[in-house]
Amino acid sequence: MVIKGCIFDLDGVIVDTAKYHYQSWKRLAAELGFDFNEEVNERLKGISRMDSLNIVLSEGGVIVSEEEKVDLCFMKNEWYKEYIVDLDESELLPGVKKFIEQLRKDKIKIGLGSASRNAKSIIKGIGIDHLFEVMIDGNDVQKSKPDPEVFLRGSTGLNLDPKNIIVFEDSRKGLEAAISAEFIPVGVGIPELLPEANFHIQSFENLSIKQIITHLAK
Ligand code: B16
Ligand code: MG
Questions:
Q1: CATH fold of 5-15+89-217
Q2: Predicted TM-score of the model (pTM)
Q3: Domain 18-84 is in which class?
Q4: How far is the CA of 14 from the centre of ligand 2 (A)?
Q5: Which of 24, 39, 111, 182 could cysteine-pair with 134, CB 3.0–4.6 Å?
Q6: Which of the following is catalytic: 11, 137, 140, 170?
Q7: What pLDDT sits at residue 123?
């Protein structure tokens, strides 16, 4: 196994913004008169804003027009943006920046593959955009995860074959996407919640690429 590149998902892998998506959807559900829990939220990870809204509405048994859906997505995103306006390095998940910096020293190419349309502004806002050779987000793709388009555009940008790229993902849909295009998937989070991946990490703290390659090769 030769690792030449790594593509990172954003929410739940680089930054802890998944909690802000959750709070914004919960607020929207409350406005519409129903409750929204973490179990449903788990299904929203990695998918587009509109796909997420459709799940939220069906959970609440609410039917609205396509125009209203656009307005609801806009409203949710305005609340979400209030949370992320002042993001700084403290929102980075433990060890991830150091891990990426070490990869760069090891001449491993770095990409971003996120479903979020806010991804680039978050990465720039935190001041870590210089670490990425390519950034693909929800604005750049036609199809959202589990379609592999976001990662395939990333591999094209890195000029590497998917089989030489590790994809770090905290969502089932994202792992499905990576696997379907023959990237090397690494689940970030609890194995029971991410059964698609054969190998998982809980955090990037004190982690080296050598440790990952050793586990993957088993
Ligand atoms: P936005 P990722 C995804 O980001 C989130 O996991 C998902 O919860 C969110 O709905 C989606 O981005 C769209 O985000 O509303 O900001 O465009 O995990 O693929 O980095
Ligand atoms: Mg994610």
A1: Rossmann fold (3.40.50)
A2: 0.94
A3: mainly alpha
A4: 9
A5: 111
A6: 11
A7: 97
